[in-house]
């Protein structure tokens, strides 16, 4: 059936149909149509309920009010705003934006709009017909416009620096500068590139987290919060210790690592301070010092590592000083092989550990004033007078003994009056006597004048021996003090003259003896009193003992004056001590009292052993005489003074009555020299003569009797033992001779 069109409806419907479609698409067009007054000319509108083709429609005024009129429509329009993304959909359907962002709805229709952000955005709210962030519900009683704002989410990137090294991480785009700023927020979807830069001495060893690995740039697309780690590791360097030199030793490090030999190389971090300590192997080596690594000297070496470093530790063979000591006044040289010592001049030199050094000593033989003797080695394991071979294991001192050949003194074999031709003539006599037996040197006579002392004539010379080689005296001071070792009994031909008179005109202290004359300064033999000494005397009596006449003949003492030598007696390995008492002893307590006197002085001086007085005596019960010799055991060692000078070569010879002792007891237990003219108790004329009551003060018990004695400084026993007979026992100046038992 063909539809019938109203004369006006047909045209109007087509127009309405066209507008309806436009309204559905655009929303507000129908309203425009109404405003144009077209509805007034139209019928109820087309649609399924319109009159069929057979219907007859009458054009009347109620055309728009019929039940089949189309409803009013309103457009709902959505606008998307913001940096993010999302969709807006409607219920009922019609809007799916983006895509379809506008739809028409029947007047009064309730439309709900729902905003759904994409995964990287946030829905931040409606504007226009709705507000807030919930669903947007509008009643379509008019056209509605609404804006949905979507904002891109932002996510933080946090960088953590790991490891023992140092470095920085920066970002592009900016925001991270770590070091100081190690986190930053970026909009989702942002591509961020992180770059790591290691500090000096460190190495960037790689990324972790955020999907990054390796050591290149870390490029991430921000879709969520990211934690990314950048690892920086301190560079490590090799420290090497190189031991140099021919010595040995070890080097250790702090912190540990080097223990060389063994571990001579170790790895340490950049900037690490390493202290090296060197220890030489002793006693054979010494640490000679550091080189390399900025180290010098012999202390510890501290290295700050900024690269591979080699430090040299030099160990050298230890060198120790060999020193030659020359305590004596002799002249000579000591040389070494290998070279180094040449003493006189160079008396110490370094030698290598374990080195063998041979020393050779040569005494001076000229000029005459320097003639010396090499007396031997001591120290360094050397003895004797040959070469000295020393193995150097430490600082070593070897003593080389050089003694000036002593000056020679003698009593002339010839006798002379007081007319000697003056002092010069007397000296000429000494020179002639010396030359006759090939004694070299300059000699002066022991003579004084009122203006010149005999002691001063010896000058600076020292050290005299007799022609038989036995020591006489060491210094002029000793000579003046009475410290003589042996009497000057031997002449130039090495003959013992015994006890004879000698011209001296000199006192015990070496000055002119005013008790006589000088024979007109030794130019006259006219009768005049003259004082002299005894050749067997020790101490004062050697120079002042007798009175004579200038016309009488006597001997001369001659002293060499060329050298300042040193003379000392050489004590035997074993001997018993003997001394003259320092204080007088008066009889009255018997011989036991005399022994006590000796023992007391010995003990005070620290001398060992038991001491008895050298006295003859009597048995007070029977009256039988006892000899001095009988009181002592002669099978023991010989007796000698505290200075080591023996009285006789053996104990037996001391009591043999051969006429002379080798020396005299003029030294106390403490070693002090005494005058040679001291009176000493003896009790008999000889040591082997038995005492009697008259010679021993009644067995040394009486001070009203008499006793016998001698003089301390003589070696002739008749004077030493029996010179003073019939001495009163009550005197208080007589000494004792004391011998160790």
Structure description:
Helix content is 10%, strand content 36%. By secondary structure, the protein is mainly beta. The chain has seven domains: 9-65, no CATH class; 73-152; 154-234; 236-317, Immunoglobulin-like (Sandwich); 321-404; 407-560, Roll (Mannose-Binding Protein A, Chain A); 576-740, Mannose-Binding Protein A, Chain A, CATH 3.10.100. The strands form twelve sheets. Strands 33, 34, 35, 36, 37, 38, 39 and 40 form an eight-stranded mixed beta sheet that branches. Strands 4-1-8-6 form a four-stranded mixed beta sheet. A hairpin with a 4-residue loop joins strand 18 (249-254) and strand 19 (259-260). The N and C termini lie far apart (186 Å). Residues 1-66 have low confidence and may be disordered.
Q: Kindly give the count of domains.
A: 7
The average pLDDT value, as a whole number, equals 90
Low-confidence regions: 1-66
Structural class: mainly beta
CATH architecture of the largest domain: Roll
Termini gap: 186 Å
Short description:
This protein has 9 helices and 49 strands. The protein is mainly beta and 741 residues long.
Topology diagram in text:
Layout: H1 9-26, H2 29-35, E1 73-81, E2 86-91, E3 96-97, E4 102-106, E5 109-117, E6 121-128, E7 136-140, E8 144-152, E9 154-162, E10 167-172, E11 177-178, E12 183-187, E13 191-198, E14 202-208, E15 218-221, E16 226-234, E17 236-244, E18 249-254, E19 259-260, E20 265-269, E21 273-280, E22 285-291, E23 301-304, E24 309-317, E25 319-325, E26 332-337, E27 342-343, E28 348-352, E29 356-363, E30 372-378, E31 388-391, E32 396-404, E33 407-411, H3 422-436, E34 443-445, E35 464-465, E36 471-473, H4 476-481, E37 501-503, H5 519-522, E38 529-534, E39 546-549, E40 555-560, E41 576-580, H6 590-604, E42 611-613, E43 617-618, E44 625-626, E45 639-640, H7 651-654, E46 679-681, H8 697-700, E47 706-711, H9 717-720, E48 724-728, E49 737-740
Parallel strand pairs: 1-8, 9-16, 17-24, 25-32, 33-35, 37-40, 41-45
Antiparallel strand pairs: 1-4, 2-3, 2-5, 5-7, 6-8, 9-12, 10-11, 10-13, 13-15, 14-16, 17-20, 18-19, 18-21, 21-23, 22-24, 25-28, 26-27, 26-29, 29-31, 30-32, 33-40, 34-40, 35-36, 37-38, 38-39, 41-49, 42-49, 43-44, 46-47, 47-48
């Amino acid at each position: 059936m063909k539809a019938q069109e109203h004369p006006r409806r047909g045209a109007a419907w087509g127009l309405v149909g066209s507008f309806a479609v436009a309204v559905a698409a655009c929303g507000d067009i129908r309203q425009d149509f109404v405003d144009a007054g077209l509805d007034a000319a139209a019928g109820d509108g087309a649609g399924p309920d319109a009159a069929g083709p057979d219907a007859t429609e009458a054009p009347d005024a109620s055309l728009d009010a019929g039940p089949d009129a189309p409803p009013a429509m309103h457009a709902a329009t959505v606008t998307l705003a913001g940096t993010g993304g999302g969709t807006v959909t409607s219920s009922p359907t019609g809007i799916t934006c983006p895509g379809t962002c506008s739809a028409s709805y029947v007047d009064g229709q309730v439309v709900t709009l729902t905003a759904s952000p994409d995964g990287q955005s946030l829905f931040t709210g409606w504007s226009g017909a709705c507000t807030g962030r919930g669903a947007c519900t509008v009643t379509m009683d008019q056209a509605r416009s609404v804006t949905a704002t979507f904002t891109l989410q932002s996510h933080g990137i946090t960088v953590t620096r790991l490891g023992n090294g140092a470095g920085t991480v920066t970002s592009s785009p900016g925001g991270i500068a770590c070091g100081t700023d190690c986190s930053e927020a970026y909009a989702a979807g942002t591509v961020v590139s992180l770059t790591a830069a290691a500090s000096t001495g460190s190495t960037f060893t790689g990324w972790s987290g955020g999907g990054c690995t390796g050591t290149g740039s870390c490029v991430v697309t921000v879709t969520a919060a990211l934690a990314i780690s950048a690892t920086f590791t301190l560079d490590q360097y090799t420290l090497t210790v190189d031991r140099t030199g021919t010595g040995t030793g070890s080097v250790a490090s702090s912190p540990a690592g080097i223990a060389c030999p063994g571990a001579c190389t170790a790895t340490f971090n950049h900037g690490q301070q390493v202290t090296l300590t060197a220890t030489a192997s002793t006693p054979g080596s010494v640490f000679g010092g550091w080189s390399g690594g900025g180290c010098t000297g012999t202390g510890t070496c501290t290295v700050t590592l900024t690269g591979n470093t080699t430090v040299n530790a030099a160990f050298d063979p230890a060198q120790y000083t060999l020193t030659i000591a020359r305590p004596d006044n002799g002249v000579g040289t000591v040389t070494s092989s290998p070279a180094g010592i040449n003493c006189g001049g160079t008396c110490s030199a370094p030698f290598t550990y374990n080195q063998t050094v041979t020393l050779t000593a040569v005494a001076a033989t000229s000029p005459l004033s320097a003639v010396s003797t090499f007396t031997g080695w001591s120290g360094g394991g050397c003895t004797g007078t040959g070469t000295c071979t020393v193995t150097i294991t430490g600082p070593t001192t070897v003593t080389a003994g050089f003694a000036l050949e002593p000056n020679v003194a003698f009593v002339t074999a010839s006798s002379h009056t007081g007319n000697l031709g003056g002092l010069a003539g007397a000296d000429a006599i000494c020179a002639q006597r010396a030359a006759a037996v090939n004694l070299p040197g300059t000699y002066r006579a022991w003579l004084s004048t009122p203006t010149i002392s005999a002691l001063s004539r010896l000058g600076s010379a020292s050290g005299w021996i007799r022609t038989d080689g036995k020591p006489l005296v060491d210094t002029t001071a000793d000579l003046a003090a009475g410290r003589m070792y042996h009497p000057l009994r031997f002449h130039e031909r090495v003959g013992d003259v015994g006890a004879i008179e000698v011209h001296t005109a000199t006192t015990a202290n070496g000055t002119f003896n005013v008790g006589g004359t000088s024979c007109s300064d030794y130019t006259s033999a006219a009768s005049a009193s003259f004082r002299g000494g005894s050749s067997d005397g020790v101490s004062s009596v050697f120079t002042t003992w007798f009175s004579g006449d200038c016309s009488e003949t006597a001997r001369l003492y001659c002293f060499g004056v060329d050298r300042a030598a040193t003379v000392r007696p050489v004590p035997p390995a074993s001997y018993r001590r003997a001394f003259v008492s320092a204080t007088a002893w008066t009889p009255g307590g018997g011989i036991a009292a005399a022994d006590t006197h000796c023992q007391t002085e010995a003990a005070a001086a620290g001398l060992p052993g038991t001491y008895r007085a050298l006295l003859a005596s009597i048995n007070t019960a029977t009256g039988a005489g006892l000899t001095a010799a009988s009181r002592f055991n002669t099978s023991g060692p010989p007796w000698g003074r505290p200075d080591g000078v023996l009285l006789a070569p053996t104990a037996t010879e001391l009591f043999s009555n051969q006429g002379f002792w080798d020396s005299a007891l003029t030294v106390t237990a403490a070693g002090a020299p005494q005058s040679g003219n001291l009176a000493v108790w003896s009790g008999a004329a000889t040591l082997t003569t038995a005492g009697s009551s008259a010679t021993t003060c009644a067995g040394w018990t009486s001070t009203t009797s008499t006793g016998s004695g001698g003089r301390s400084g003589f070696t002739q026993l008749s004077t030493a033992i029996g010179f003073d007979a019939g001495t009163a026992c009550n005197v208080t100046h007589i000494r004792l001779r004391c011998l160790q038992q």
